[in-house]
């Protein structure tokens, strides 16, 4: 990307949400300056984003977050064909639930012996939804002409596989998508560093 940067993208290396935006700026040719942040994020990051989450895109006009808002801005700014916003929103919400489930597990937070007022373990419940959700997603994606939702799915599943694999067989169309995305420069250039919860 040799063009003048149109914005500054703040990201954490392991975040699937930030990786999606890093992929999109490459796929859709939206030159940015990328700023890699440590994790946990520094306290002053809340001055930039009250959510205290990445990604954040700062342009000359505004500061954009969360991920869906950045994707929408990039799509409009680069003249992309419309994509399924419901599918992207569902994928990002699903990823949030996976992150929450994994963080709960990595932090050692499990239901305590006293009465569980919910009657279920939220982390387990979130993981049980993976198969049915991916079946729903498989009916809506196009591995041959990926857009924002397909790139998001690839980033999320790559993150899951590298962080905490889930025992769930992917529908064939999703397996094909992941294979195709792995060949793209945007995915090869944004592979996060290896990580372990140990």
Write the layout of secondary structure elements.
Elements: E1 7-12, H1 16-27, E2 32-37, E3 56-59, E4 63-64, H2 67-78, H3 85-106, H4 122-128, H5 130-138, H6 148-163, H7 172-182, H8 185-188
Helix pairs in contact: 1-2, 1-6, 3-4, 3-6
Report the radius of gyration as a whole number of Å: 17 Å
Number of helices: 8
Described by strand count, sense and barrel closure, the largest sheet is: 4 strands, mixed
Q: What value does the average pLDDT take?
A: 92
Q: What coarse outline follows from CA principal-axis ratios?
A: globular
Distance between the termini: 37 Å
Spans of at least 5 consecutive residues whose pLDDT stays below 50 are none
Tally of strands: 4
Range of helix content = 40-55%
CATH arch. level architecture of the largest domain: Up-down Bundle
CATH T-level topology of the largest domain: Glutathione S-transferase Yfyf (Class Pi), Chain A, domain 2
How much β-strand is present in the residues? 5-15%
Structural class: alpha+beta
Order of strands across the biggest sheet?
Answer: 2-1-3-4
Element order, helices and strands?
A: EHEEEHHHHHHH
CATH class category name of the largest domain: Mainly Alpha
List the domain count as a whole number. Answer: 2
Give me a quick take on this structure.
With 198 residues, the protein is of the alpha+beta class.
Any overview of this molecule?
- With 198 residues, this protein is α+β, with helices and mostly antiparallel strands.
- The protein folds into two domains: 7-78, 3-Layer(aba) Sandwich (Glutaredoxin), CATH 3.40.30.10; 85-184, Glutathione S-transferase Yfyf (Class Pi), Chain A, domain 2, CATH 1.20.1050.
- It has helices at 16-27, 67-78, 85-106, 122-128, 130-138, 148-163, 172-182, 185-188; strands spanning 7-12, 32-37, 56-59, 63-64.
- A four-stranded mixed beta sheet has the order 2-1-3-4.
- α1 (16-27) links the parallel β1 and β2.
- The chain is globular and about 60 Å long.
């Amino acid at each position: 990307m040799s063009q003048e940067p149109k914005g500054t993208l703040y990201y954490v290396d392991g975040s699937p949400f930030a990786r999606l935006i890093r992929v999109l700026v490459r796929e859709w040719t939206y030159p940015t300056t990328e700023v890699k942040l440590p994790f946990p994020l520094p306290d002053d990051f809340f001055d930039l984003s009250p959510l205290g989450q990445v990604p954040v895109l700062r342009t000359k006009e505004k500061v954009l977050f969360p991920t869906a808002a950045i994707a929408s801005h990039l799509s409009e700014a680069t003249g992309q064909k419309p994509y399924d916003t419901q599918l992207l929103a569902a994928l990002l919400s699903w990823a949030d639930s996976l992150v929450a489930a994994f963080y709960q597990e990595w932090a050692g937070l499990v239901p305590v012996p006293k009465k569980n007022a919910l009657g279920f373990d939220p982390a387990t419940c979130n993981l049980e939804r993976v198969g049915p959700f991916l079946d729903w997603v498989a009916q809506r994606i196009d591995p041959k002409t990926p857009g924002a939702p397909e790139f998001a799915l690839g980033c999320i599943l790559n993150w899951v596989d590298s962080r905490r694999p889930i025992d769930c067989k992917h529908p064939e169309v999703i397996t094909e998508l992941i294979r195709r995305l792995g060949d793209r420069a945007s995915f090869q250039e944004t592979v996060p560093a290896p990580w372990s919860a140990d």
